[in-house]
DNA sequence: AGGGTTTCTCAGGGAAATCACAGATTTGTG
DNA sequence: CACAAATCTGTGATTTCCCTGAGAAACCCT
């Protein structure tokens, strides 16, 4: 089921109305903390583990609806952990975290069951979106929830990556797409440049903060060009998106 | 009966609307896990067994609509297992898994009754497709469901392996065919290279991920050449197929 | 054995995306 | 109105990703 929280954010709930449960497994504490924060903010219940042992035990006790699993753990091989997790939780989808350059060798066969993966360093927007997709498709959350975000006459389909405004198709690059998704998931809410940077860019991004301005500019050209603007600047505070008819 | 799930995926159901049941028998646990995940994702109910004993017992209790049976089991000869299964489940189709170099004529005799076989190492796309075919033809699922995929003016017949666009017949190699089938079974959905690799190439494929790019390139030459393109690249995300007229 | 076909690796070229930089523009303030 | 701060955007360098030609190896059929 999808509900609208008092703050206007949408969150997934299980069919019985209880919050979705996610287990996060990574040996770097900074990563588990980062992810836990972000995923709790989505309205999910989070448990984390720092090694394979702990992961298996947490799986047994916590009965998560989805797992985020780093493939590089200190005590066990990622595949071994996966096997043990599968025995505990046969139908639970897994989102793998892998190093950028290790993608090809070990992921083979892993995403076949409908699992998914993201490479480190990731952006939170990416992780959250993938997890939402996995949970949605696994049936842990109500299947009626679909993959299309709508704000005014602007739509964004998370499955097909298609964006259109007033019927016109709009092509976006990967970064533009993620930025717009973040805005559209928080309509009518001012998002600071820092929030956007933390959420849309990967956690190790070391560049200039004005990339956000730059990408807002790109988005405006594609989405607001010649139309009633939907993306607004709140000087000194940030940006927000809302339907054109205010 | 064939239904379209909310996500746009098609899944087979039995005439009474309950999910199709499949028993997977293999002594390598990695294989049963891989298959279980993939087949569950098709919307089927799965039970697995690791030897002949377990298979016979599971057949008795679980009453599957189809069986995937490795012919190399530790405790019994494959033929013996088959015999015992047949006694339990006289009309249930069997998909055999055999080593590449196994004696083919023996298998050929077995498949005469409407069964089928796949050689190891297999691709999931292959197993799923064969299984769907067996189930469809056995009558466990509604027979009205047919074997032709259609996207725009492009059609692909899973039985005859014929592909045509706008009336023109197109010859595809085996790999090209499986890639196109996978795309067409997920129209308008972005599929990552990892997903494609996991699904279309065999589970032990250790090669370069750019075979996917290469085969996409081959497909384009045959399908999109001189026409409105149907295969699209989403840079940084993957590929998708959709009708040309958008 | 031999020719045709298919699968796959490798590597070069090219296009697209990302980002830094800097100057232009806007906005709010006194 | 003038100024400063904040924001916007044009330009181009760099990086990343994708496409495809060429050829080697495996396979298949006769």
TrEMBL record, chains A, B:
Modified residues (4-aspartylphosphate): 70
DNA-binding residue intervals: 146-243
DNA-binding as UniProt keyword: yes
Domain annotation OmpR/PhoB-type: ranges: 146-243
InterPro entries: CheY-like_superfamily, OmpR/PhoB-type_DNA-bd, Sig_transdc_resp-reg_receiver, WalR-like, WH-like_DNA-bd_sf
Keywords: DNA-binding, Phosphoprotein
Response regulatory domain segment(s): 21-135
Protein name: Response regulator transcription factor
């Amino acid at each position: 089921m999808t509900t609208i929280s008092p703050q206007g954010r949408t969150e997934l709930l299980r069919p019985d109305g209880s919050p979705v449960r996610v287990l996060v497994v990574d040996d770097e504490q900074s990563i588990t903390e980062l992810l836990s924060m972000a995923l709790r903010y989505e309205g999910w219940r989070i448990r984390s583990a720092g090694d394979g042992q702990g992961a298996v035990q947490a799986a047994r006790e916590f009965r998560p609806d989805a797992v985020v699993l780093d493939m590089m753990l200190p005590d066990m091989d990622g595949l071994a952990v996966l096997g043990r997790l599968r025995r505990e939780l046969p139908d639970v989808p897994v989102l793998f975290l892998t190093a950028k350059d290790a993608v090809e060798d070990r992921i083979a066969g892993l995403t076949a069951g409908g699992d998914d993966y993201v490479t480190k360093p990731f952006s939170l927007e990416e992780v959250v979106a993938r997890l939402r997709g996995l949970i949605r498709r696994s049936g842990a959350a109500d299947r009626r929830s679909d993959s299309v975000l709508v704000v005014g006459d602007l739509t964004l389909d998370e499955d097909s990556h298609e964006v259109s405004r007033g019927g016109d198709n709009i092509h976006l690059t990967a970064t533009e797409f993620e930025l717009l998704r973040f805005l559209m998931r928080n309509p009518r809410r001012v998002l600071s440049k820092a929030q956007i940077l933390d959420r849309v860019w990967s956690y190790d991004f070391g560049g200039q903060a004005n990339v956000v301005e730059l990408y807002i500019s790109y988005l405006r050209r594609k989405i607001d060009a010649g139309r009633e603007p939907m993306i607004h600047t709140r000087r000194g505070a940030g940006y927000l998106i809302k339907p054109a008819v205010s």
